[in-house]
């Protein structure tokens, strides 16, 4: 009888071991699947299959799970047309509110393209329609959207249809060669725009308080931003009256985005739209032309909003993370623009850029605990990467064509009213010197005191969101804890 008990125990033990091995195998299979899903993000993101250097799809899926910072629209993506041209984003100029379709050019699709400056575009185009897997051949045309910048230039490729054959959803361009299969050309998804905006009359009550500035953010020349710089930029510009941010960047830390999304929208009171940025060029060498393409994409997107709706963007500026618009006399950007252009008649405001070297000595009058942007109070005259900041006034643009004539009516804002502060390490770019100039070398360059930023210091450091970030509390909380308990 004893032998039977031992046999039964051996059999049970053997079955347990087999079951354990099967369970372990299934466990690792499930774990592998979860790791893959975690790395590649949520399924159904075909619109952003390729997002270029620095982009992790996990970051996008994390953003999509939240409402305060998310991709709600078709993201712009650089796609190669041929060896000389790269398309960025496409906009459909039909199905609009204020005009009816006409037999001539019923649909016009504008595509932002970066191409070689010395190569003339010679392409054909196809328009892809809703509920159809066969494209319609369109009529190709193009216009120049910028002066040559080094070896590149900004173009607008136009593809038009003479008849209303349905709602366009995509556009593709291919070489004007009948030996080339057009089905292999990359397809740009189309974004709808309004062709006209109804401007408000200067005598109306709604005209008085209709300044609603927006900032489109691009990476720095070195496309890395720290979490402190990230939150300082957002909070500072929110303090001076900017509630709308469109961010074109793929190098933002996932943890920064996740923590920012812990804040309810009624606390932040801002609206952030995020687009990943891929670039098929050497970024530092093509920075200016990529910046121009992003500005045009930003303007196209904001132009399409109906101006009859309240709280829609009226002015747009393109800034990198190390650039700050700093009012001198006023405490916010809206009041400054209202004083400078009360009739809203100037299309482009030009703001002088000032370089504040981060490797200069801290100002003795700066309060302890203030960020570096408050402690660096001298701007320097030296060869640094800087460009004047343009603020575009959408209220002067009655039709979509006006977006291609941005500099027809421009005016410089005096430095006494507004400056564009650029905070970067000053160095000799002909030498490899990551630390920049030392204290002795800095004394050689001419510099001038400017303390406009300091007046915002107390407001910045006392801001609820900024305090939580700097105190470290927000980094200690898990995503399921209520951030209101920390306020």
UniProtKB/TrEMBL annotation:
GO terms for cellular component: cytoplasm; membrane. It is found in: Membrane. It is a single-pass membrane protein. Signal peptide: none annotated. The chain crosses the membrane at residues 6-23. Its main location: membrane. Keywords: Membrane, Transmembrane, Transmembrane helix. This is Jg12479 protein. It comes from Pararge aegeria aegeria. The lineage of its organism: Eukaryota, Metazoa, Ecdysozoa, Arthropoda, Hexapoda.
